Amino acid sequence: MAKESVLTLTGVSKSFARADTNEVVDALSNIDLTVKSGEFVSIVGPSGCGKSTILRLVSGLLSPTIGTIELSGEKISGTSPNRGMAFQKPTLFPWLTVKRNVGFSMKMRGTYQENQHKIDDLLDMAGLGEFKDSYPAQLSGGMAQRVSLLRTMINEPEIFLLDEPLGALDAFTRMNMQDELLNMWQKKKNMMLMVTHDVEEAVYMGTRVIVMAPRPGRIIKDMAIDLPYPRNRSSQELTDYRNEILELLNYGKHEKN
Ligand SMILES: Nc1ncnc2c1ncn2[C@@H]1O[C@H](COP(=O)(O)OP(=O)(O)OP(=O)(O)O)[C@@H](O)[C@H]1O
Fold this sequence. Notes:
This protein has helices spanning about 50-60, 100, 105-110, 115-125, 140-155, 170-190, 200-205, 235-255, and strands at about 5-15, 25-35, 40-45, 65-70, 75, 85, 160-165, 190-195, 210-215, 220-225. The chain is about 35% helix and about 25% strand. α7 (about 200-205) packs across α8 (about 235-255).
């Protein structure tokens, strides 16, 4: 079980200077957000509203221009295996087997041998046990993405940052992966922050959905999805939440024009 922790973003703004025009882009403006372990927070919003920037700030890859980001009272500075990030495209080492890819961080720390069982268990849980000695080129796209997610999961991060992790998968694999991620989260009770373009996925998975608007990137709604798990994908309640969010996103468009 992941340790109890609280993530707080207080008055966070992030600006970038565009290299080509020197123009300043206000990617995020005055973001206040508190997330506790055990919460699954989905982040939705139009392209360019700063969703990935939030994840990169929490991962420590970026630091805020204004404001503070703390994990259980300690300022985040720099990356940590406690804050694991997974991306849309699988990032695997082609010359390592599936098992060695998943155990890569342990190899680096010199703890691979003692953790072999743990890696095998995780691979079995994700239906990849038979493929542990295969190489990435021998896997389907969905399998490679699962291996990539396991590589982050194995570290049992306090915060799991997911940037469109299922975006490139076919619909069927995507639904299976959604359920696998939910299983993992329910066992570990860690903190999940997931960016997605798919509003249905956001409400199906999240305990909360953060809805954002662009220019400058900001939070327009923090919506609790008050439904028990396992959820029914076709329930009226989920559809109602989805429609409410789609309306908010549409409202954002009118506001800009
Ligand atoms: N390193 C950077 N340099 C300059 N501008 C950047 C940089 N990173 C992000 N931006 C700008 O900040 C804004 C927010 O980008 P971000 O990638 O966070 O948006 P997003 O909501 O994740 O978009 P998408 O859904 O298209 O992935 C965009 O206008 C983007 O062009």
